[in-house]
Amino acid sequence: MERDLIMSTDLELVEKVKGGNRKAFSELVKRHQKGLLRMSLRFLKNIDAAEDVVQESFIKAYEKLNSFEGRASFKSWLYQITVNTARNKLRESRLETTDIEFVQISVGAIAESSLVHSAVKDLLQHEIDKLPLKQKTALVLRVYEDLSFKEIAEVMECPYDTAKANYRHALIKLKQSLEQRKDLKSWTEQVGGFMTEMNQYVEAEG
C-alpha cells in the first residue's frame, strides 16, 4: 500500500485523498514540504515563521482539495497557496519583504560551483533582497526551485509572458547592480569568472 503511494503521481494521490485516503496526503506533504520551506525562507527571515507558513499552506490545500481541478499541476497550485500565505504573513508581521539576510542562498542555475567566495555570495544575496517582490518571486521560483515559466505563471496567477518578463527584469537588474560594484571585479578570478557566467546566463535566457 505504501509502495503504491510512493509510486503514484501527484494527481493520482490527489484523487486518492479525495476518495478518503489520508495517507495519500501525507505522501504529498513528504514530497513537497522541503521545497516549500526552502522557498518560504527566502521571503521570511524566521525559520519558525516559514514553518508556520508551510503548515498553514498544507492545511489550506487539504481543505481546498476538492476545488482543485487539475488544470495546473498540483505543485504549481500548492506553491501558489504558499506564496500567497507567505505574503500575508509578511503583511501581518510587518516583516521587510527584502529581509532574508540570514538565509544561505543556494545559487542553483547561476553556476553554484563558481560562487565559492563568501563575499560574493553575500553580495548576491544583498542584491536579490532589493528586488521588487514580483521579480524576486519569479527569480526564486525559476532559479532556486527550478520551476518552468508555465508553472511560475500559474503560481503568480499571471500570463506566461508576464512571468518571464518579471524573471528577466530581475536578472537584468541583478546583473546591472553587480556590474556597478568595483569590488566584485577584484574577486572575479577567485570565483571562476562570475561576471562572465552571469552575462552568459542572461543571454541564454533572453
Give a description of the structure.
The chain is an all-alpha fold. The chain has eleven helices and no strands. It has helices at 2-7, 10-18, 22-41, 47-63, 74-93, 118-129, 133-144, 149-156, 160-179, 182-187, 194-205. α7 crosses α9 (160-179). The model is unreliable at 95-117 and 188-194 (pLDDT under 50).
Short note summarizing the structure:
This protein has 206 residues and is mainly alpha-helical.
List keywords for this structure.
11 helices, single chain
Structural class: mainly alpha
| Average predicted confidence as pLDDT | 78
The strand count comes to 0
Residues in helices, as a percent range: 55-70%
Strand content: under 5%
* Measured distance between first and last alpha carbons: 46 Å
Given as residue ranges, the uncertain stretches (5+ residues, pLDDT < 50) are 95-117, 188-194
Order of helices and strands: HHHHHHHHHHH
| Tally of helical runs | 11
What's the story with the biggest beta sheet? Answer: none
| CA-atom Rg in angstroms | 18 Å
The best one-word shape is elongated
Which helices and strands appear, and what pairs or packs with what?
Blueprint: H1 2-7, H2 10-18, H3 22-41, H4 47-63, H5 74-93, H6 118-129, H7 133-144, H8 149-156, H9 160-179, H10 182-187, H11 194-205
